[in-house]
Write a structure and sequence with these properties.
Blueprint: H1 7-12, H2 17-27, E1 39-43, E2 48-54, E3 63-68, E4 71-76, E5 99-104, E6 109-117, E7 120-127
Antiparallel strand pairs: 1-2, 2-7, 3-4, 4-5, 6-7
Organism: Phreatobacter oligotrophus
Family: Belongs to the small heat shock protein (HSP20) family.
Pfam families: HSP20
Length: 159
């Protein structure tokens, strides 16, 4: 795999920190991607998405969801009750370790809600583009339209 050194760009640009961190993340420079817990990302509509994270053994009190600076962070940590001892497992196949999973959100993507259902945490997202940024049709005038004069008069005399 090729390695690109972006250090010269860091020194000569201002305000592109997020872009460069996304490039580093895509290139795998921030270390190996975590594999726990597994997740799915699906498109549920033209501008709607759903992230499903397998969180078997976690309750809604053990999970937290946060959106900050276009990054969605899902954290899970099992709460240990007072007076409870650690179980004596003969085989432990269900992982209950703490985790943190981050997803980079595109511009104008908002989190609409989250539901914990049968061991899956579903986070619903929607892209809401502001009216000012949506494409709009510009009407084309007919050939009979007279040009509008912005400054001066339309009856200029030649010198």
């Amino acid at each position: 795999m090729r390695h690109f050194d972006l250090a010269p760009l860091y020194r000569s640009t201002v305000g592109f920190d997020r872009l460069f961190s996304m490039l580093d993340q895509a290139a795998g420079l921030e270390g190996p991607a975590p594999s726990y817990p597994p997740y799915n990302i699906e498109r549920t509509g033209e501008n709607a998405y759903r992230i499903s994270v397998a969180v078997a053994g976690f309750t809604d009190k053990d999970l937290s969801i946060e959106v900050k600076e276009q990054a969605l962070t899902i954290r899970g940590e099992k709460a240990v009750g007072e007076g409870e001892g650690k179980p004596d497992y003969l085989h432990q196949g269900i992982a209950a370790r703490a985790f943190e999973r981050r997803f980079q959100l595109a511009d104008h993507v908002q989190v609409k809600g989250a539901v914990l259902d049968h061991g899956l945490l579903h986070v619903d997202l929607v892209r809401e583009i502001p009216e000012a940024m949506k494409p709009r049709q510009i009407p084309i005038g007919g050939g009979n339209a007279t040009p509008r004069v912005i400054e001066g008069s339309s009856n200029r005399q030649a010198a």
